[in-house]
Amino acid sequence: MENNSYERARKRVKEKKKFYEHLGSFLIVNIFLFLLNIFTSPGHFWFIYPLLGWGVGLMSHYYQVFGFPGMRGETADWEQREMEKEMRRLDSGYYEEDHLELKELDKKPQKKWRDEDLV
Fold first, then answer.
1. What is the mean pLDDT of residues 111-119?
2. pTM of this prediction?
């Protein structure tokens, strides 16, 4: 079991490393293209086309490695992590969404006015 976890962690680190290498090359090449564009033809910003095309590929790579922000449910382990989190919440005795206690509503309100004062 421990070996399996190690292999999954190693694979995940390799995926992250490849993404960061991709990000680094994206930045270096596009900075170079920007500078080349500014010095050779400042009237037309053509560097934006490769930047946008490569940017779409980089975003795709990001989603493949890290998933959509806030939605990491695409992995098989997500359901297990959510079950463990829910079990910890239930074991702690904290039931926020089950019911709402408003003890002050159980008390009969005391009148602070006379009925004839109301219009």
1. 74
2. 0.57
Half-sphere exposure for 55 (CA within 13 Å, toward CB): 7
Longest dimension (CA), the chain: 86
User: Could you tell me which residues are beta bridge partners of residue 68?
Assistant: 71
Using CA atoms, how far apart are residues 68 and 85, in angstroms rounded to an integer?
Answer: 20
Q: Is 5 helix (H, G, I), strand (E, B) or coil?
A: helix
Question: d(Cα 5, Cα 62) in Å, to the nearest integer?
Answer: 23
Residue predicted with more confidence, 92 or 55: 55
Whose structure tokens read 């890290």? Answer: 66
Alpha helices by DSSP H, 41-108 = 48-66, 77-91, 103-106
Query: For the chain, what percentages of helix, strand and coil (3-state, to nearest 5) are there?
Result: 65, 0, 30
Per-residue pLDDT tens digits for 69-81: 766 555 667 677 7
The two tokens of residue 97 are 């969404």
> If you ran DSSP here, which 8-state letter would residue 116 be given?
G
Asked whether residue 106 carries a pLDDT value surpassing 80, the answer given is no
| 76, two tokens | 């098989």
